Amino acid sequence: MNDVLGSDNERLLERLKLDDESAFERIVELYRPMVYYHAYNRLKRGEEARDLVQDIFVKVWKIRHRLPDYTCIKNLLLFLTKQHVIDLRRHWEVEKKSRDRLLKEASYIDGDKFLDNRTLGRQLAAAINSLPPKQQNVFRLIMFENKSHHEIVESLSLKPQTVKNTMSKALAALREKLAFIKKS
């Protein structure tokens, strides 16, 4: 890919800072393949890489007025890609730990006695059913139907951050609701 060098970069940046949507569209057109390539190579997940690309360009639009005049657009996009990948991996790790902790907490009483599967299933179902409808729906789609965040965003017309926040709240609520299992 040919990089936009020198004065072309400066002109695009100037126009972007002046809220020129055509300059922004040109930046997206020029750099979307590069950003996707780097995101996909680090994530190895196509849907998440596409979501990340969209998030990065939204971020560029939001911070356009704060960009220094000497900003190299390519370097900015590579930096944002790297940071977003790190953040996303951290989020996945937190989600995995929460899911593992929830399953572990739901499986033991006092660390020694196992609940029988039917009792555990009923208590878990009751805890899930007590969640607000949106949390129930997002939780079930992710945990039971193995839907990705991107699929949920598209099917429920939610923002990616809303899906993440809703899942985090659902996991926290379930940990709280199932905490009595450990204490019994």
Automatic annotation (TrEMBL):
A single BP term in Gene Ontology: DNA-templated transcription initiation
InterPro entries: RNA_pol_sigma-70-like, RNA_pol_sigma-70_dom, RNA_pol_sigma70_r2, RNA_pol_sigma70_r4_t2, RNA_pol_sigma_r2, RNA_pol_sigma_r3/r4-like, WH-like_DNA-bd_sf
Highest taxon, organism lineage: Bacteria
Keywords: DNA-binding, Sigma factor, Transcription, Transcription regulation
Listed SUPFAM superfamilies: Sigma2 domain of RNA polymerase sigma factors, Sigma3 and sigma4 domains of RNA polymerase sigma factors
Similarity comment text for this entry: Belongs to the sigma-70 factor family. ECF subfamily.
Domain RNA polymerase sigma factor 70 region 4 type: 122-174
Protein name: RNA polymerase sigma-70 factor (ECF subfamily)
Naturally occurring in which organism (per UniProt): Chitinophaga ginsengisoli
GO MF terms held by the record: DNA binding; sigma factor activity
NCBIfam families to which the protein is assigned, alphabetical: sigma70-ECF
RNA polymerase sigma-70 region domain mapped to chain residues: 28-67
Keyword Transmembrane: no
